[in-house]
Amino acid sequence: MEKTTSYDWQHLVDSIGNYLAPSMAKDHPNLPVVKAEGCYYYGADGKTYLDFTSGIAVENVGHRHPKVVEAIKKAADSLVHGPSGVIIYESILKLAAELQEILPSGLDNFFFANSGTEAIEGCIKLAKHVTRRPYVLSFTGNFHGRSIGALSVTTSKSKYRKYQQPSWLTYQLPYALPEYLPEGADPEEFFPEKLEKDVKSLFKHQVDPEEVACMILEPVMGEGGYIIPPKSWMKKLREICDRYGILLIFDEVQTGFGRTGEWFAAQTFDVTPDIMAIAKGIAAGLPLSATVASKELMQQWPLGSHGTTFGGNPIACSAALASLSVMKEEKLLDNTKAMGEYALSQLNKLKEKYDAVKDVRGVGLMLGIELQNAETKEPDGDAVMTVLNSCLEKGVLYYLCGNSGEVIRMLPPLTVTKEQIDQGIEWLDEALGEL
To answer: Which string of b and e fits 75-111 if b means at least 16 CB within 10 Å?
Structure first.
């Protein structure tokens, strides 16, 4: 085959399977784009698309914010790569100092990595090292990544675990799912009582609490269906962990950096974990994450027990500093609360209008629209795909989640305006009507 340096864009898209693994290139909707800016993608087809995914909760300050782009260019003029520890540089130290100011009190020491999955691996390793205990508790339906360690606590979909046997000494507890709530029961009372019973049963029959290193969960269930647990349930988790000397880990990869209306969901629920994983929205699209804990815990994790080549990249740290500055200057936490409340009120109108909409729920700009078969009341992933494709044709990009793909997730950049929300929901309304 004759080699060429000139490629036809559409030909490359049509033959994508010749270049990229299906697990990388065949996600929904596989939209060819040439540019992104603010709340929009610009397609190779010449159309403009509202992005209600934020690159899956990454572009919290919007695509290519001018201040972030400028920070990236300036950083690249000085330093492109910094194997932290071999050398040290200003941006990583400044970022750590800035993060100390916005994280819950006591979470003030950082191990920087590149992805959310890496941050989760760091959390679990730190907890096991510090406690000298072997077992980890996670919650059914939660997603924490797909590397083997992270997969051992990921249970949002069984297909992620197929052929992998990711046991790694883990046990699962039920999450606070709405389906468990008896009719007429108060969730603030029911779920803490249920959690107490579930934990006691687990400790009585399967694992002794003195052997449990940590309990890990998403404070808002993400990929598993956008489920928001009661505050009382979260506080009961903290109480149980304190009772047995178990470290509490929050996976704030998706909920962090303003997505829930506070800097972190820990502040939304007023519960501080011992260890936290942060990523996604941290650096406006550049690969960066961190395992976060107290100095007291981190000092017990000696040199060589964990490591990274690219973690805390100087350009990514500079982008993160610029992103934090934008969020403060533009008051994006306030905008997230206001626009989140407005969007939820508009989505509730769709719930009243269409039998196919089983539920809408959200906190900040992390919103889920659950669809069901109007006759059988079963989760309807096929309907979700039909609606997503119709929305895309109209000009707005939503994404899916839930065990059966039955939930539409709506997570626009935190810069989103009322007009943009109105437009996106109008198109969703039309798509549901066609359904």
So the answer is: beeebeebebeeeebebbeebbebbeebbbebbbbbb
Whether the CB-CB separation of 226 and 367 falls below 8 Å is answered with yes
This model's pTM is above 0.90: yes
Q: Which residues lie across from 216 on neighbouring strands?
A: 249
pLDDT tens-digit map of 63-89: 999 999 999 999 999 999 988 889 999
Tell which residue, 254, 177, 247, 262, has the closest CA to residue 216.
247
Give the Cα separation of 216 and 336 in Å (integer): 26
pLDDT tens per residue across span 109-153? 999 999 999 999 999 999 999 999 999 999 999 999 988 888 999
Task: Please name every residue paired with 63 in a beta bridge, in sequence order, or none if there are none.
Answer: 38
Q: For residue 263, how many other CB atoms are within 10 A of its CB?
A: 22
CA-to-CA distance for 191 and 330, rounded, in angstroms?
Answer: 37
CA–chain centroid gap for 371, Å, is: 21
The residues, ordered by sequence, that sit 6+ positions from 319 with a Cβ below 8 Å of its Cβ are 68, 71, 72, 75, 283, 284, 285, 286, 288
